[in-house]
Structures are given as C-alpha cells and as structure tokens.
Amino acid sequence: MDLDKLLETGDRCIFREPPTCTANCPVHLEIIEFISEIEKGDFQKAYKLMEKKIPFHRIIGQICDHPCESFCVRSAAGGAISISELEKAVLEYGAAKPKKIWPVPKKKGKVAVIGAGLSGLTVAVDLDKKGYEIVLYEKTDRLGGRLWDHIGESLKEENLSEELKLVKDKGISIQFNQELDKNRLMDLLLEYDAVYLGSGGWDEQLEFNPKTFQVDELNLFIGGKIVTRNDSVIFSASSGRRAALSIERYLSKVSLTDSREREGIFETPLKQDVSETEVIIKIEKQSSIYSKEEAIQEAKRCIKCQCRKCMDGCNHLRKFDISPYAYVRQINHNERIILGTHYANKMINSCTECGLCKEECFLDISMKDVIQDTRESMVERNKMPVSAHDFALKDMAFSNSSRFSLVRKQPSKEQSKDLFYYPLISFSDYVKGLYHGTGKTEYLFYPGCQLPASYPDDVKSIYEYLVGHVKGDVGIYLGCCGAPADWAGRQDLMGENIEAIKKVWEEMERPTFILACSSCIRVFEKYLPEIKVQSLWDIYAEKGLPNKDQIKIPQTLSIHDACGTRENSDLHESVRKIASKLGYNIEELKYSRERTKCCGYGGLVYYANREQSDGFVAERIQESPHDILVYCTMCKDLFVSGGKRTFHLIDLIYPKDNEDGAVKKMPTLSERHQNRSRVKRSLLKEVWNEEVDEPAQDDYQLVIPESVRQNMEDRYILMEDIQAVVKNAQESRKRFFNPESGDYLASLKREHVTFWVQYAQEDDKVLIRNVYSHRMEIVEE
Amino acid sequence: MYQEKKDYQSWICDKCQKELELTKVKVHYLEGEFEVELLNCPTCHQVFINESLALGKMAEVEQGLEDK
Ligand code: SF4
Ligand code: SF4
Ligand code: SF4
Ligand SMILES: [Zn+2]
After folding, report:
1. What is the value of pTM for the model shown?
2. How do residues A136-173 score in pLDDT, each as one tens digit?
3. Pairing of strands A765-774, A701-703
C-alpha cells in the first residue's frame, strides 16, 4: 500500500487544527487548554499556560486588547467567550512566583535594543534568556514606554514597576536618555552583531521583510508600532517575540524563513459549526473581576472548538477515541513494523466500512477506503489475523457450495402455472400476477445469502411475485455475492467469486439482476458495474405490493437505511413509498439516507470484535422511540437481538398470522445454514419439480440447553461441529471420562480449529454440557 | 500456559483408563512453537485442555501470535 498517500490523507484531517481564537491570538495562547484548566478550577495550571506563551503575561494579562475574542465562534450563540476577563481572573487566583532563572553565560553575540517599550523589552528578555548580551537604549529615563498609559483600573502602577524592576534585576545593561538618530544607528549596526529597533517614534521609512522583520539584508530588525502600525499591545509584544526569533536565527546562521507560516495571526482551516449549539449567555462579572465561580461558568461556555464531525457519527472512532489524523498514523506504523506486535490490528478490523465518516467530513476523508486498502495490504503481507474473519469466510464458502448455490431458468408456462394467477376478474385488486414469460431470462432474482437464512419461507413468495409482475422470464440464482471476502480484504477470493457470478450472467445471456440485499447492491456496484441491477424494493414500489389486504394497524416507524445503500437515494425513496403504501407513518432519524449509520454488522465487525458491534447496535437502537424499519436482514437480526422491536420490509409485505414480526429472533448460525439448504430444496421441489436428496440424518440426537446454545453463537461453533466431535469420540473412544459426573470430554480438529465437547449419554440421546474451541495445535509426537 | 492437576484430577483417559499426568507437550500456532506442561494420558498421550485454558491463556497466546 502507498504509505505516502496514506499519510497525506491523514494530514488533510483538521482534527488537530487550532480554533479561531488561538489563530487570532498573535502569541497563540493555547486557549482551549487554558479554558479547560479554568473549568476544572485549576487556576495554577491555567496561569502556567499564560506564562508559557504571553510575554510579560502579568502586564499583558491585564491590558490585552484581545483580538481573539472578536473571532470566537461562540459570539453567534450567546456572546464571545470573555478570554481577557478569564486571563485577569487567572492572574488573580493562579499566580505563582516567577521561577528563579539562572543567568546563562552571555557568549552568543551582542545585540542592541533600541526602545524600552513593550516590544523592545520582549526582545531584550527573550534574547537574554537565550544567552545573548543585550544593551538597551531608551530615550527617556524609565523603562516601559507606552505601557505607562495603561495604568488604571486593571494595571496598577506598583505592579508595572515591579515587573520592570525584574528586567533590571536580570542584569541587562540599560542606557537611559539616549536620543538616537540615523547616524547613531549606523554606528550601532557596526558595533553590534544585530540591532533591534522598536522605538515607536522613529520617522524614517524602512523597507522590511513582513515575515522576519529584517530590514533589507542588514543586521537590523524592527518591531513594535513601526511594524504593527496600531496601538495594540499584544501585536506589539508578538512582533518583538518574532523579531527576537529572527535575530537568533540570523546570528546562528540558519534560515530566517523556514516553517514560520503560522506566526502572528493566521487563518485556521477549522470551521466550527455552531448552528446546533445551544445558546448560553455570557457570564457578567459582579465586581471588577470574575469570581472563581464566575470564571468557571464562563469557561464552561467555551465550545472547545475542534472538528469531530466524523467522530460524532461513528461509534468506532469514539470507542477507540481516535481521529482520522491519528488513525492514519497508527496504520502507518502498523504497516511498517516488521518485528513486534501489530497493535492496530484489532482497531482496523473494528471499522464497519460504512462510509459515514466521508459523508460527514467536508474534506471527504474516507476511513472506509483507508481501512479497505489496509486490510487488503495486511492480507497480502500475510499479517491479517486469521481468526478475525475465518468464520465469515467459511460461511461464504458454504453459501457458494452445492448446499445452497443454485441457478435455474424460469420453468415453462405450463410447468409454472402456480407461480402466477390468471386474472379472474380483470382489473381486480386480487390478481396476483400474469404470465409475462418470453422464454428469455430477462431477470435473475439474486436474494443473497442472508435473506434466505433469515426468511426461508418467503423466498418462494417473492419469486412468485416477480414472475407475475416483471416483463420477461425470471430465473433464480442462489449464492453469496462475496461481501465477506471484500470486507476481509481477500481480493483473491473476491476475484474468484466475481468471475463465477459473471459466468452465470453470461450463460444466462446477461439478465438484469434483482437484488434484495444491500451488501449485494454494494458489491455489484463496486465489482460488477457491467451487470444491470435492480433492487427488489424498487420493483415493489413500482409494480405494487402483492398483498393489498394485509395492511396493519397504523403505526409510526423510524427507518434505518442500510449503510451499503448510502448513495442510492432512489432506493431510499422506494422503501419509504412501500411503508407509506402499507399505511405506516415515518419519522426520520437524524442520521438517515446518505447519512445513515451502520447497524454494527458491516466490515465483518460482528465477527472480528463483537463488543464493537454491540456498541453500534446499542447506539443506533436508542436513537428512535419508535419501532425501527429496516431492509437488510443483518440490521434486523442485530437490532432484535439488541432488544429493539424491528421490522424488516419482508415482515410488512408478507406478514405472518399470529406472529409479531418485530420481535422475530435471529436464527442461530447453524439454523442459518439449515435454512439456506432448505430454501434450495424447497424451490427445487416446489417450483422445478425436481427430485432432491433429503439431508443426511444427524448421527446423534443432541440435547442442547439454552446456555450452551448461546456459547455456540458467541464461539462460532456449529451443530455439525458438535456432531463430528461426538461421532469421532463415540467411535474411537478417544475421549476423557469423569467418573464422578459420568461426563465425557472429547475434541476434534476440523480445518484450523479444534473443537471440544463435554457431554453425557442418556439412552439414545447425547446431552451437551459445554462446547469451546481453540486454534493452537498440539504437536502429536 | 499451565494447568493445575488438582483441579482436574477427576478426569481420566477413557480409552486407557489411566489417570492424567502433567508432562511437557509441544504446541504450535502460526510461527510459534512452545513446550508447555499439560495434562495428558501417560499411555496414549491424548492431551486434556479445559475451557478456561482454551479461552484464557491459549486464546491470548493465539491473539499475540496473530498480531506478530
Ligand atoms: S470530519 Fe473527521 S476526518 Fe474530516 S477533518 Fe474533521 S476530524 Fe478530520
Ligand atoms: S468557543 Fe472557545 S475554542 Fe471556540 S473560538 Fe471561542 S474561545 Fe476559542
Ligand atoms: S467507515 Fe464507518 S465505522 Fe469506519 S471509521 Fe468511517 S464511519 Fe466509522
Ligand atoms: Zn490414553
């Protein structure tokens, strides 16, 4: 897999981009962290964050003109966060004694700083800390420049004096009463390694680089009002800090311009959507400064702006608490390690590949595609954990074996009389259908593998309906589309499967496939674009429903669209049309149609990480107070087993007497197999009048208590596995015996799995006590 | 991976009617091969693996090897 391309995708994710407030703070205070500390009541930590980013934070914290606030997105929902008031509160409640800094030996070079206003002082202090020898030239007899104009309500004279005294205490040499002119400046440029000019009163026009503040190619750097051309203290301090960095780079002879794109204020790509944010009115201070409690309340209003759109919709990303940015990095690491544990495997196999993330992301970042590529790469490199998808792939092999797979043309008119009705009274509502056959297979009904497994009794009715309603012959094709192979990253198996389907299609002279399963629709679109497909639900919507007199009591349902049909808006319409024709009222879910969620089965997550699958189910079913309507068998089965009343369209179109379709339980894994085989046999017998072999009788009559049945489901153990173990044990006596309980314990390796069965014999019955399995093999000596 | 004999001493080999003994047995999965002490029949050597071993330690080692 192309790892550079992968990383590029991840780097497009703006999860880590700063909020607009920080981007518009000229010194980039980490406002979210700052506010979060206040919210926790930790004013000391908040103070440290100010100290880290704001030059002379004890002064600026009191007088900053806060350009950040006018960009705060909260302004549209109750008023901008009072960041500057919060800073004042933090100075009040969280201040710590300045750290004692040991003077660094001054041997890196000599810098003259002209003007002891805010920008000059910032340069002086920043460079002094870095080990430069500084001489300050000030035209008056005191430090601070225009800072003295700010003495008033929040900035106290004694505080300013105290701060300025700290500068003197550092041992920076200061020359007062120095009125400098152009000639004097020239002398200084020769005398010093670099000169900073921050005197607001300088009239000379100077050409400077707007990024580095260097004048021409000289060792002269400028800042303060000459650069900012306004009275803002924070822009002035920021310019000093940036000039100091330029001087440092200049004197260390490294690039002045490298990676400085985001200095000062910049535009952040983060676009916070506040249209759904609850309005909360700004907290007004009750005295001259916020009380601690007021500050905490104000901090709570901050949205902590961050792009989490995909995470908000996806249970998987939230469960692993990971953004696509970080996810891609973990995949990259997972792909690169040769020796050592691939820690991200489990996560990669827990994505349902539902595609919602891409739908939600305004940059169209698709984790579905990333995960698909990754799984394919893992398979290619032989790094895919076998156990993750083994059972699902075996299930697919079953469906494509002779136990289920079947292809038949529609029987001739004479032979297929039962499949349709001649109209007794023309235009009657009760006409089931007409003979539309032509002898050419125009359509091939492909119900997929899960619908026959869950609704074995309805496949024939659906087929009858199709024969009676569409123009041309309708054949039938039973099998599995290959979705499990696709999700498992098994391109080898997928390729074979596609070829097999194509062959049938060609042999049948290229009929249109009628698909009932949303996974089939997805697979056909992706791998078989040359085959024309039609959804079964579109046909019902267009041709009318088979049982017009079966409409139930009106009820409101929420539709859960299948994630495989995300882009198929016609299908979404058809489903709604069918439901309303049947008399149901629809209440849409927030995440529906192209924004639908996965039920938890997609991507084989149901097999690879049951807990993750359960997470999807639990989240989805609580989104609707009504019964849910689905049109994918797996959605239905998962929701019902999660305890939610859920109808499949089939339950509504073919309602059963005395059965509540909404609670119909998922057949067990073994029953799914049996049901598929049964569908094949009954179609052959009833429609094609063919002789069929009855399934071989079970060797043993098993009695299985409910708790063991649950274990079979959770551990992917089939009835036929148990039969095989018992048979082998009974015949060979290779088993263990417990004289106290009278139980036997036996095992048998079938393909890659060793199955263990604990059982007791009672007359001709075998009572199953427990089942489990493992994949590790015992090396028989 | 280990077993404690006392927990399972009631089980015997049905074929040989022998009590099980703890001896070193070779197991392998994917690229990994280990020697572990497991209960087995002293005569026919069939190895006894109970539920907690299969679903506990064994599954853990399998997972670890699959992620290697
Ligand atoms: S929606 Fe998700 S992937 Fe897209 S930018 Fe935001 S966090 Fe990143
Ligand atoms: S809501 Fe908070 S994070 Fe967002 S812009 Fe305003 S202060 Fe910054
Ligand atoms: S494809 Fe679906 S499950 Fe996977 S990350 Fe995207 S939204 Fe989440
Ligand atoms: Zn023995």
Report:
1. 0.86
2. 999 999 999 999 999 987 899 999 999 999 998 888 99
3. parallel
